[in-house]
Structure formats: structure tokens, C-alpha cells
Amino acid sequence: MAAAHGSSQRDLHDVPPAKRTRVSWGAIFAGAVVAVAITLLLTLLGVGGGLLTSDAITGADGLGLFAAIWYVISGTCGLLAGGYVAGRLAGSPSPRDAVLHGLTAWGLTTVFAAWLATSLAASLISGATSLAGTAVQATGTAVGGVASGVGSATGQVAGGALSAAGGALGAIDQIPLPDVDWSKYGSMANDLIEKTGADPAQTADEMGDQPVAAAKDFAANVRKWVEGEDSVTQEELIQVVTSNSGVSEAEARKGLDEINSAYTTAKTEATEAYETAKAEASDAYGAAEDRATQAYQTAKTEATEAAQTAYEEGTDALGTAALASFAVLLLGALAASFGASLGRPDEDEFRTRG
């Protein structure tokens, strides 16, 4: 009777050591399938509930926090159930065997989830390639300006001021030396001619035997003299006037001196106006150059600071995401292990299995 009873029961110690610890891949795959299915089921539940109650959640931050919490809950519950199934179906009453089967089921689930996420990301990237290319082409002009170093964003800021500066610099050489209106002083020369009895507007044939044969060229010669040409001297002009009229030498000299003084004063004023304009143009160029340099440096500093800030924020975000992923995976491993411990058969149940 005892033998019959013993034949219907088995003791853990009656099992050969080589067969006490074995890997049940069926149990592992079953646990992984259950974990994925329950996780998917709870995820759909969370998505549906979240969308239906989205009005009660304030802002995108609140919705994102809800999604993250529900993701952790659904994953943990799925792995807990998967670990339970793996530990139960492994059939070993050993806590170590159960935990190892639960951890293996967790690892298989994690690998599958990583593969699925990678495939999905690859599909999204492949599908968005043409759209991204179009967007890059559409924004190529704007991005191309800022692509190298600080880029055209700073170059355009400085370029506007430098363009104005260049215009001011070019204007320096384009400022003409103002010419003196000779008509005012030519009339003074003609007054001297009229005292000789000649009319400068007459032609040589019309003048005939009038006293000044060269009256028509007198004003032009006076202009050459006041402008400093060596071909005409004041004495020659005085001689022309005095030898052909009753004008005295002193009166002729006085008239020519008045013409020369008035013309020299006008010329000086014109030269001073030119120098003033040139100095103002130089000052404008210097100011524009300073503004351009300052604008460039400011834009360069701002671009550098923005890039540094973006880099720091990006690394912080990646670090936070890595730590969060580590915590979630660790929680999943613990859940799968705990579920496997709960699901393992005890020794009494193991003995009664035929």
C-alpha cells in the first residue's frame, strides 16, 4: 500500500539532480506572451480612458504625466502576470528556478519591446525622410545663413550696418569740391571792361576799332589769374585796362583785388564745406563700423549661449530619460521575479503531480 502510494507521489529528493534544475522555454515564452498581451491590454485601457477624460486633465504636461504613470503601471502589471505564468509553468518548487524563469521572461519581453520600438522608429524615420527633405529644402535658405558658426544670422545683423558704413565711406570720395559760381565775379570783371568802352558780348567784327581788342576774353583771363594759372598775371590785366581806357592803375588794381578777394573767400568756404562733409562721412563710417562689430559680437555671443543651453538641456533630458528607463526596467524585473515567486508550485503540490 505504501509502495502504491509512493508510486503515485514523488518527492523532490527522488528527482535526479540533473533534472531538478532545467530551463522551461515553453514557460518562458508563455510568460513573455502573457506579459506583452496584458501590457497591451492595459495600455489600450489607459489610452481610451485618458482620451475620454482628457478635458479633466489640465495642459499637455498633465496629460504627459498621466501617460507616463499609466505606462509604468501597465508594464509592471503585465510583467507581474508574465512572471507568475513563467514561474507556474516552469513546474519547479525551487524559488531560485522560479525567479530565474521570471527574469528570463522579463528579458525576452524587454528584447521584444526594444525590437518593436526600433522597428517602429525605423519605419517612422523612413516614412518621414521625404517630408524632412522637403522641409530642409524649404528652410535651406534661412538655415544656410546660420549653418556655419554663428552664420548669416549674425552676418546679416552686421551686414546691414557694414553696408551703411561702406556707403558712407564711398561717399567720401564722391563728395565733389564745390565750384565757385563765376558769374558773380565775372560781372565784376566786365565792369572793368565797360570802363574801357568795349562790350564783352560783341564779336571781334562788331567791335571794329574799339579800344580793347581782346575784351571778349578779358573775363576768362581774369578767371585764370584768380585760379592761379601762370599764363596770366595781374600786371598784364592792369595794363590791358589802363592802356585802353581812362581808368587809372590804382583803380584797376583795386578792382582786380576785389575780384580776387571775393573769389578766394568763396573758394575757401567751398573747401571748408568739403572738408566738413568728408569728416562727417568718416565719422559716419567709423560709427557704422563700430555698430556692425558690436552687433556681430552680440549675435555671436547669443548664438553661442543658445547652443550651449540647448546642449545642456539635451544632455540633461537624455540623462533623465536614461535614469527613468533604468528605474522602469528594474521595476519590471522585480515585478517579474516577484510574480514568478508567487506562481511557483510548492513542494506539496510538486509531490502530488503524477
From TrEMBL:
<keyword id="KW-0472">Membrane</keyword>
<keyword id="KW-1133">Transmembrane helix</keyword>
<keyword id="KW-0812">Transmembrane</keyword>
<feature type="transmembrane region" description="Helical">
    <location>
        <begin position="63"/>
        <end position="86"/>
    </location>
</feature>
<feature type="transmembrane region" description="Helical">
    <location>
        <begin position="98"/>
        <end position="117"/>
    </location>
</feature>
<feature type="transmembrane region" description="Helical">
    <location>
        <begin position="321"/>
        <end position="343"/>
    </location>
</feature>
<protein>
    <recommendedName>
        <fullName>PhnA-like protein</fullName>
    </recommendedName>
</protein>
<dbReference type="InterPro" id="IPR036259">
    <property type="entry name" value="MFS_trans_sf"/>
</dbReference>
<feature type="transmembrane region" description="Helical">
    <location>
        <begin position="27"/>
        <end position="51"/>
    </location>
</feature>
